[in-house]
Amino acid sequence: MVQFGSAITLRLSDGREIDADIEAIVQQENEEVMIVFRTNKAVEDLIAYRKISIDVIWWGYSGLKVPNSAILEEGGLSYVIRKRSGYNDKILVEIKKQNKNYAIIDNYSTEDLVELGYDADDLKARKTISLYDEIIANPK
Questions:
Q1: Contacts of 30 (CB under 8 A, 6+ apart)
Q2: Euclidean distance between CA atoms 27 and 31, whole angstroms
Q3: How confident is the model at residue 89 (pLDDT cuts 50, 70, 90)?
Q4: The pLDDT value given to residue 34
């Protein structure tokens, strides 16, 4: 949950990202919320214009965005079913971040798999998920 004092990132219209802190969160009378950010970077760019556009980055993770309905839980691990060349493969994935609709997933690193108990043969034979792979939603 975002709260007073939380660190976030602001992306300016030129693509630069600057760090900021949440100074205040104020509930308005018309059910809107005003959030005040504090930063001491790129201030000259922020005050040079009357109106600016920024993106607020609450959290940032790198990976593939998939719907939660495509993720299987088995034995405390998460999997997706990848369809490639007519074959379905069960692919072990690491969930980086998840909300109620989507998850950001990635492949486990070799070190993480060794910690999970995988041996050299398992690591050679493992299959990974990549961009543009077709996954099955609601697998059984």
A1: none
A2: 7
A3: very high
A4: 86
- DSSP per-residue string spanning 12-33: -TTS-EEEEEEEEEEE-TTS-E
Q: Whole-prediction pTM value?
A: 0.66
From residue 131, alpha-carbon distances to 33, 42, 65, 74 in Å are 36, 34, 10, 23
pLDDT at res. 2: 61
User: By the 8 A CB rule, do 38 and 25 touch?
Assistant: no
Closest CA to 68 of 100, 97, 42, 40: 100
Q: CA 96, CA 39: separation in Å to the nearest integer?
A: 27
The Cα 69–Cα 71 span in angstroms is: 6
Whether 130 and 93 have beta carbons less than 8 Å apart is answered as no
Q: Six-digit token pair at 72?
A: 């299987």
